[in-house]
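== Folding the chain ==

***
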Amino acid sequence: MKSITIKGSERESVGKKATKALRDAGMVPCVIYGGSQPVHFAAEDKAFKNLVYTPNAHTVVVDLDGKTYNAILQDIQFHPVSDRINHIDFFQLNEEKEIIMEVPVKITGTSPGVLLGGELRLNQRRLKVKALPKNLPDFVEANISELQMGNKLYVTKTIPGNFKLMHPDNTVVCQVKISRAAMKAAQEAAKAEKTAAKGKKK
């Protein structure tokens, strides 16, 4: 999985007054959990742009004045009015322990059902996977090359990797729905066939 580096500084004071001062200065207060003790730090708001405002999944290298922590984003809080980032929780990675993380679904291939006028519907845009940090995938691949009109692709049919999918086997990742246009065309074709059959009988 690709990694993003966030540069920041450890926080000496974590009180409400100090936190407000940080936010007023355009900084985001953060905490890293998962180690022997929580690590409080702050970084510029713009440092999180490529981590938060993207459909992709990333691990994070938090660089605090030369001291680094490998982590993943665990929770994020936004201001209810301005929608600015209020606070971020990170979880420190242990290379020998599996971690659960959401990653995006990547659709590959061409569906015969879509070529015939069906509508591809993505039921799951992201899936939870469990893996060692080194095996975390950038995405879960769903190949739709065999999906006919009305077919569904279940989570068990995604491309496997060195990770475990944390979903029931009957979870639908995507499906090809019969579009109104395709349904109308099928009805008209059936009607025309019926009319032709009647003409032959006469």
Observations:
- Residues 3-93 form a domain with the Ribosomal Protein L25; Chain P fold (CATH 2.40.240.10).
- The helical segments are 16-24, 49-52, 112-115, 180-201.
